[in-house]
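Marked as duplicate of an earlier ticket. Keeping the data here for the record.
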Amino acid sequence: MIPTNPPAKGEMTVTGTVEDGVEQGCTVLRTPVGVFLLLGGDRTLIGEGNRVTVRGRAEPDLLTTCQQGTPFHVLEVRAA
């Protein structure tokens, strides 16, 4: 699929498998390029074991209570 608009500066798209994080209430996406802590997004698609593609922005300096993954603000999610 060819995007109709180029991604905004700092946005990225990654595909992987959703997992529950080590901390309660934390959800991560395991991808070939790393583990991302998913912030936001459609939780009907972001469920344990689902394979998804997310578009958004990594925020490596954001502090969270989750002790796993690079924080990633989800702008769009779709089944992969």
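See parent ticket for discussion. The longest strand covers residues 11-20.
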